[in-house]
Amino acid sequence: MRLAIIALCTFLLLATPTSEAQSPSSPAVGRWKTIDDATGKAKSIVEIYQAKDGRLAGKVVEILDLKDGPNPACDKCKGANQGKPIKGMLILWGLRPDGAGKWSGGRVLDPENGKDYKAKLELLDGGRKLGMSGCVAFLCRQQAWLRD
């Protein structure tokens, strides 16, 4: 009987999730300050997280550039996002690991023009920056986002 109790306690101890096991599996997970590649100004905070399917996704959690108000709508978006508030909007989805510190295969939405593009992410500067590229065919536009 005593051996069964010890075995049960050992099993429960090993089966209990630890904080290390619950930590994000991707170093890109977290809050990132988006920087406009044309003006160099901070525009928003995007929270990148691991979706249920294991891929990376990101949503706007804060608007920093208030020229269009505290929570502008995505007027140029089509479909379900048309006219919806940008804050809370999913703008990055479907990214899979593509080597050390790189992700690809996803999409990114630009709320300013309502279009989505092929997306690639790459950790830069020891993980303090995130290179985010949106591409159409072989033409890409890159922004460097800063860890918030």
Please supply descriptive tags for the structure shown above.
148 residues; eight-stranded antiparallel barrel; disordered N terminus; 2 helices
Distance between termini?
A: 54 Å
Which sequence of SSEs, written as H and E, runs from N to C?
HHEEEEEEEE
Number of strands: 8
Structural class: mainly beta
Strand composition percent: over 45%
- Average residue pLDDT: 85
Low-pLDDT runs? 1-24
Helix content: 10-25%
Report the sheet with the most strands, covering strand number, pairing sense and barrel closure: 8 strands, antiparallel, barrel
Q: Note the overall shape.
A: globular
Radius of gyration equals 19 Å
| Strand arrangement, major sheet | 1-2-3-4-5-6-7-8
Note the total helix count: 2
